[in-house]
Design brief:
Number of helices: 13
Oligomer: single chain
Bound molecules: pyridoxal-5'-phosphate
Largest sheet: 7 strands, mixed
Distance between the termini: 46 Å
Amino acid sequence: MKRLTELVQFDPCPGDIHRANSTPIYQTATFAQESLDHFGQYDYSRSGNPTRTVAENFIAKLERGTHGFLFNSGMSAINTVLGLLKAGDHIIAGDDLYGGTHRLLSERLTQRGITFTLVDTTHLAAVLEACQTNTRMIFIETPSNPLQKITDLTKLALLAQHKNLLLVVDNTFLSPWSQNPLSLGADIVIHSATKHLAGHSDVTAGAVIVKDEGLAKKIAFIQNAEGSALTPFESWLLIRSLKTLGLRVERQERVALTVANYLEAHPLIKKIYYPGLSHHPGHDIHKKQAKGFGSVISIVTESLDISRKIISNVKLFTLSVSFGSLNSLISLPCQMSHASKPQNTESIPQHLIRLSIGIEDADDLIQDLEQALNKSDNNFWETRERRVAAK
Ligand SMILES: *Cc1c(COP(=O)(O)O)cnc(C)c1O
């Protein structure tokens, strides 16, 4: 089956006598036992729920894994994976991770006696150098957020295997539609399902996907022990969203590339980060390991003042954290999603703007950006020629 077909051709209600076409929401906390000695598949929804099972199998299949687990947030999913480690262990983490992940590592994991080193994982030599005898895990995002640094997944997976380390990839940025790290050798994939998987800014959820029975057992144990699983209703909302994942992401990526090409040529934009542009560092590696370029574009202008003006002048881009939604969003990561990140990590320019592209018409988005850019620089017409010449 081709991937778009796979998204809608699946059994929505295994074992259900009514053969519903939409997965029923099993809004129950408990399940009756057949007898004292006979347990059914389900007993308590913290441990397992039929609606959640359909959603978990769906996401496992999408990521080319064997087992999927859904959590009440992306952070909860990440915390569960980090729960595989014990006091004395060490993690190598990418130096441009999601702010919340960095906060979890620095404020919570260290309290449990787990140490970490931030490494620019685009350089494999730097990863090797950071390996200690107690290193157990490499945790990365590629493309990273918001600087869109590209790590070679196949090579890093070989290194991890060689050193007997778990390779964990937070694949939120691209979604399983555009990249499948398990197929490239990663051991664990994580998602903030709040982003592309849900896609409508209406669900907070997280996912963990593995391809190894032993790891699956450990994750299931932590999910149950810590009580962090997703509710039946939110699981149902996710199933509903996943059916259109391909349509949404393909469309968003197409619009994003058009907008990125426009921004790249614009004299007011000093720097643009988007893996779809041929000059983007790691563009060729990304093309080898991913099926799409994502729908987030980061841009840097000449000053914080200009960036702030652009943000207040756009009309179609909602000022909001997050990405992967149907409608386009704009944010200033340093003051928003990444504010929890200390200054000593990979520095994000204060005036970096992050655009999350939705499914709107590209012409409308470009027209909106054009008017916002023109209005945002008082000296725009005087300096335009100088900037064009400098580009
Ligand atoms: C949003 C995000 C998270 C956190 O997920 P929540 O659902 O907000 O808890 C983790 N990683 C990345 C890359 C994210 O973008």
